[in-house]
Specification:
Length: 388
Amino acid sequence: MSERFCYRCGISEEEGGPLIEGLCQVCYRKENPVLLIESEINTELCQNCGSYKKRGVWVDPHSYELDELIFEVADNALLETLEDSLSDKIREYEVVSMEELEEVDELPVGKAIVAFQPVDWHIEYFPAIITYEVRVKARTHELQRELHDERKRVTVYVRQTVCPRCSKFLGGYFEAILQVRAEGRPLAEDERKAIGKLVEEKVDEIMRRDRMGFIQDTIEKEEGLDFYMGSTSSARKLAQAIKEKFGGTISEAYELVGVDRQTSRETYRTSVSVRIPKFRRGDIVADKRGNVYEVERVDGRGLSLRNLVTGKSEHLDWKTAKREGVDTVEHEESEAMVTSLRPGEVQMMDMKTYEVYELEKPAGEIREGEVYRMVGVGGRKYFRSKKE
């Protein structure tokens, strides 16, 4: 059999190792490089929120410390470009440290090991400039005696821009209005504070998955709160969170605001309304059978009520409360002194009118001579609680 020679350098197969596609070992590696990355890469980060593009999608950074943020953005740009710039002979790759790569001397066909590290940088002003040393080891053919071992210096330029979310936010954009109201009354101050705190906590959670879930503005009105939201889905999630904590109902309305220039479709703004129940802790209510209660607790599951005759507490879900006709009732409150106690009965004297009433004795300890609160509903008096 006649001896074969490398068609590029002329070395014999005996000296240059097994020929691969007509090339000696050295020429094969030179003619088939695996590291095809350009020497310069340009990338951007949002000067307002620090987000950057990851595979074409704007994402929030892991760190907001400027130095760490710049390196995070640059590392990401380098890795993405590197992944797209490996030879098509590479079917899989792994990123390791430079020290780990140094120890690699054997690989399966089609696999590459990649390492990179910054060797020079200027990040005091923008564009920030970071130069990396990139090294790759790989095997692309089963006849290879030595791995591809390639190095390259790559410079990443990190420039500032404004992401689409911040552009819309700074331009006053909002897609939905979340309206929070109470049924038949204005929101109380403590409710406003509690709702504001809940919304603040939930928005942080929502924006981890929905970058447009920001609050553009919050308007306090006499009757309630309006939150101007960057996305309709975020307004709906907040509405559900408020309903779960405070109870109530959710409804939506839509307003035509224009036509999208690109798609020629009509665009609408959504108003998501949460109406929390009229009931509050301490309210006096009655059901359709005439039972009178004091509201002990209101939440997303229903009402906790204390029967003013028996003193027993019970919980009604919202459907049951509606079916039982539970509603607030007109009542008068007064202070009264216990003048005598008998089995099942307590005699009380109104501290203003000095009228004496005989009431059913509630559960718990009642003492003669002490002052308690009394409630009048429909001409009947009820023992409420000890004077605070």
